[in-house]
Write a structure and sequence with these properties.
alpha+beta
Length: about 60
């Protein structure tokens, strides 16, 4: 599985604040960077938490 962030992300930074090992704000390109290529089993619960915490439901897991 991998993470996708929708275009309507408002870049509020909640994901980066709560999960800095997974997301990083990219000020140059005005987007959020995903720091992991593949969601491993040990990260799955944290990624699901980031999905639940997203202010605009812009994060999703895809297979």
């Amino acid at each position: 599985m991998r993470i996708e962030i929708a275009d309507y992300c408002i870049r509020c930074g909640i994901c980066e604040d709560c999960y800095p090992d997974i997301y990083k704000r990219n000020y140059e390109d005005h987007c959020m960077d995903i720091l992991v290529e593949e969601v491993t089993p040990d990260l799955e619960e944290r990624v699901k938490g980031s999905i639940a915490d997203c202010a605009v439901a812009a994060i999703r897991l895809v297979k």
